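Issue 218. Parser rejects a valid record. Input:
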Amino acid sequence: MKFSQLGHQIQVFAPAKVNLFLEIVSKRPDGYHNLESLMAQVSLWDTLVFEKAPDGELSLEIDIPGLDEGESNLIIKAARLLWAETGKNPGARMRLTKRIPMEAGLGGGSSDAAAALFGLNSLWGLSLTQIQLQTLGARLGSDVSFFLSAPAALCTGRGEICQPVTGGQPIWLVLVQPDFGLSTKEIYGALKVPQSPHSSEAFVHAWKRGMFTDICARIYNRLEEPALAIRPEIGLWKSHLISLGASASVMTGSGSVVLGLFPDADLAYKATRRIETGEPSGMMGNPGRVRTVRVVQTLA
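Output the parser choked on:
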């Protein structure tokens, strides 16, 4: 994670993530699912600012009105977990600036929790290792450990077991958030676990070698099937991005964001402008209104 020291404050940049390959392997006895996913961090960040407070004082301020700033927020839970594990109760004031869309499949909540573990470990001088922080992160949520790992990783188990995947080049992406969210619980409730899951091996090989054409040919998300049954507009947005020059398109996570992979920045920004202005692309069907559209790159 990126961070900076601002006098007596610490600022941590919490990146969004995309799933470029996501297969569900099996249903677990605990109700969760085993998966295989190549996740990559992208150049879209929330920011968390930390400063010391009197012993025991813990507060969180968020720049979006109405978001929970109390005990059920993962940032507060991360701080409480650090207290419980280390026996230290130094206190902190925290301020979150949200830029990662919610109900989007971009992992904003998990990334914020990871940023809290990372930032408070530094602020409080706890000296916990990366492995220790990842272990704590897994207790907060399936994706939290990933954000304390490498910019790209093959994630297995519930998503908490992360094997860094190096190599390749940054890829230009256009992220489209339709004017609706999707419930992760509803998506998984409608999911049919495959009898013969797809292997991630070919995709990981393409990613390591930076083979853009092969990456585009092998992107996959098992959760698209239940998502399409609930919101067919997901498929229309995929087609729309292809018609605007994307080499491939896929829904990320449990949605609702749909991303397009573009060979260069110029095409990505042109597509974004056309989406923003509502310019028709000649495709059949109207994908509907868009909440946000952004150009990002995967992080090296």
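Fixed in the parser; the record now loads. The longest strand covers residues 33-52.
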